[in-house]
Every structure is written in C-alpha cells, then in structure tokens.
Amino acid sequence: MLTALLPMGAMILLIAGIVYKKIKRDERRRMESELLAQQLHMQFSEKDDQGFLAQLQEFTLFKNVFGSRRRRSRIRNVLYGKVDDTTVALFDYSYVISTGKSSRRITQTVFFADDKNWYLPNFQLRPESWWGKVKQALGLQGAHEIPDNPEFSEKFDISSEFQSLLPKAFGPEVQRFLMEKPPVHLEGSNYYLLAYKPRKRLSSVEAQAFFQHCCEMVRLLKSDNRLELLNLADVQTPEALDLNAPTPIKKETGE
Question: Cα separation of 71 and 147, whole Å?
C-alpha cells in the first residue's frame, strides 16, 4: 500500500512546487510593476480597478479569433495616470486560449491611451507579414496603402473602415516614427488607442522604453491632428492633476 501511495505523493509535491513557483513569479512581477509605476510617477493597482477589460472588449486584441476561444481573460499590474490631458495606462493582459484539444495562458504588455479631445478612425496597424502578402497575391485580402509613401505601405499592413481618413491620422511624422522604431501592433477607435507586441510580456526595462515610445507616438498622432502636444516630462497621477490649474512650464534640461 505504501508503494502505491508513493506516486501520488510525488504528484502532489510536483503540483505544489509548480503552484509555489507561479505564486513567487507573480509576486515578483507585481513588485517590479509597482516599482516601475513609482519611477514613472504613476499610480499602481494590482487588479483592474479602472475597468479597462470591460471598456476594451470591441478591440481585436480582446476578441476570439481564428476559431479559438479566449477564456479567463484578466488585466493585472496596472500602471495608470495622465500625461498632460491624456489618460495613459500600461498593464499585463492575459487570457487562456483554447482550441478544444489544448489550452494555454498567454500574457502580454499593453499600452492604452484615452483622450476625449482627439478622433481616430477605427483602424488596425501591424508589420506586414509574408502571409499577408500571399493573401493579397491570391486576392483574399485587399492591399491597404498610405498614398505617397509606398515604403510605409510595404512595411505595414494597415486597415480601416474609413481608409480615406488614414492619411490624416498617420501623417508624415507618424509614418517616419513608426518606420524608425521597433514595430508594434496598433488599434485605434475614436479616442482610444492600444499598442502591444503580440504575446510578449515585457520586462521592466523593456516596459519603460515601450511606454516612452508609445507616449511619443501619441504626441505625434495628436500633433498631426493639430491638437496640444503631450508633455512627456510631466506624468501625473489623477489625484495630483488639477484640471483648472495653468499649464506648467517645462524646465530647461540643458540637453
């Protein structure tokens, strides 16, 4: 009987070890995210207290795709605040993807911007893939282009219900910026913008660089729409923001 119990005991120890490692890994991630929030002068919440998951259900990132089913979606380790008049957030989005025979949890870092003073046409932008080119060649997918910039159109697949509005949203400066920086996936709709690297959870160092990259991109998008530029030096938490206060003067850094 003792011999029969040994495999069961070993299995219990194995499961307990896996659970313990996951708890420690999640705790380490939480601490790293909280420290990053402090460095960026943003607020931190371990859970989705802002209700981002409910807000963003219409975006492709949060939908079921290609016959697979996304279950147990959640947002954690949320950094949030304001850059000038734009609400920004950085968080871990995870979900379990299931095809019926197997399932696995995917976690990735997502940047979110919300600004009621701008307008973005519904669009998706991602680096052009070989499969996208094959579908275009077979006539299964239309070619979406930005006029007067074939190099940008060759590098990125950009689609929208309102193709005629894309050149305004993606002006020359935005196009140049996206071509010079590491490519990301973008989704926009009205006053919402998402940016992410598919299925990639960024380290703290990577996340900080990604956040700054996304803020600069938002600044350029707003600039192309002739709206007030973002002040990347002044990231403020909601409690610290006074909407009636005069716009602060940026200090000279000597750089």
Answer: 40
Question: Both tokens of residue 135?
Answer: 């579908």
Q: Which residue, among 51, 56, 113, has the nearest Cα to 84 in the 3D structure?
A: 113
Nearest CA-CA partner of 166 in 180, 152, 183: 152
Angle at alpha carbon of residue 85, lines to 83 and 89, rounded to 5°: 45
For the question of whether the overall pTM of this predicted structure is more than 0.70, the answer is yes
CA–CA gap between residue 117 and residue 127 (Å, rounded): 28
Q: How far is CA 243 from CA 82, 132, 146, in A?
A: 11, 45, 37
CA dist 208 and 222 (Å) reads 21
Per-residue confidence of the chain (255 residues) as pLDDT tens digits?
555 556 666 677 767 767 767 788 889 999 999 999 999 999 999 999 999 999 998 898 887 655 455 677 899 999 999 987 899 999 999 998 877 777 788 999 999 999 988 878 888 888 875 455 545 544 444 456 666 667 877 788 887 776 666 666 677 888 888 888 766 899 988 889 999 998 899 999 999 999 999 998 888 887 755 443 344 334 444 444 333 333 333 334 443
Q: Name 24's Cβ contacts closer than 8 Å, sequence gap at least 6.
A: none
**How many Cα atoms occupy the beta-carbon half-sphere of 227 within 13 Å?**
20
